[in-house]
UniProtKB/TrEMBL annotation:
It holds the Pfam family MMR_HSR1. Residues 137-140 are annotated as: G4. Monomer. PANTHER family: GTPASE ERA (PTHR42698), GTPASE ERA, MITOCHONDRIAL (PTHR42698:SF1). Residues 223-305 form the KH type-2 domain. Residues 27-34 are annotated as: G1. Residues 74-77 are annotated as: G3. One of its GO terms (biological process) is ribosomal small subunit assembly. InterPro entries: G_ERA_dom, GTP-bd, GTPase_Era-like, KH_dom-like_a/b, KH_dom_type_2, KH_sf_prok-type, P-loop_NTPase, Small_GTP-bd. This is GTPase Era. GTP binds at residues 27-34, 74-78, 137-140. Residues 19-192 form the Era-type G domain. The keyword Cell membrane applies.
Amino acid sequence: MSVRSQSSEPSASSEAPHRAGFACFVGRPNAGKSTLTNALVGQKVAITANQPQTTRHTVRGIVHREDAQLILVDTPGLHKPRTLLGERLNDVVRTTWAEVDVIGFCLPANEKLGPGDRFIAKELASIKKTPKIAIVTKTDLVDSKALAEQLIAIDQLGKELGFEWAEIVPVSAVADKQVGLLADLIVPLLPEGPALYPEGDLTDEPEQVMIAELIREAALEGVRDELPHSIAVVVEEMLPREDRPADKPLLDIHAFVYIERPSQKGIIIGPKGKRLKEVGIKSRKQIEALLGTPVFLDLHVKVAKDWQRDPRQLRKLGF
Ligand SMILES: Nc1nc2c(ncn2[C@@H]2O[C@H](COP(=O)(O)OP(=O)(O)OP(=O)(O)O)[C@@H](O)[C@H]2O)c(=O)[nH]1
């Protein structure tokens, strides 16, 4: 077992290739996932508590570094499924886990491993491809003996389930211990590539808003001069497609592209709907990259007359 502690300064060699990718933190409620996310991002990220259950995962925060960009995404919690919706949500969680580059499994240092942890660990074991880091959180609450016991128990848990942790890292987000080290250990597990988000783009927006923005960007491409501010996009519904096998999920997204005047319809839709189709294809690809799941995107163009001047409409459109 290799347990990491910070023995040397993290080194970000300028020769190392730039990396960018996604990680998600999983773990029981209260395991310290949000606090750790905030500590890594280095700034308080508002928790979007009122997310509808149908949403997939949200970008919780982005760690910008010289050598890498780490995007922390969030999934709904994994539950013992009692209902069909519960099962579907679990499928969503598994899909996310399979799509991210790294999974961080948070286990509080001050609580013995329980059935809830085992349930999650077992699910993790079935995700073969994605590297899994065990993160022992809240180490400030225990002495070194208790910490050592916890580390051994976690190592053991991996062995029982037939996998190796990529790392086992004790951290304290509250005492700011080893949080930087955790980032250093995650970064080499990310694929090489340029930053995926502009610097300073620290988002806590519900993903519908981000999706709407992607569609809006695509819809404005090439026609910005004709319709600069006349487009608003609203994602009306996001639902996992029923009756899909667990390994082939599909997310149905229904969105409206609002324009101000009927005369603008032709510009957006294009001859024989060709342009709208292109907008759909382009934004769908980006949405899939954002969510890490296949998407069926249904776009409708609607006229919301003079919406820019109507406060009620504006609110509805999220302005
Ligand atoms: N002492 C100590 N407390 C911590 C630490 N990290 C988190 N906590 C506390 O543990 C509690 C739960 O932390 P959260 O970050 O909300 O846990 P979570 O896993 O995001 O919880 P859910 O949102 O319910 O899944 C909070 O009261 C935190 O203040 C830590 O490093 N040390």
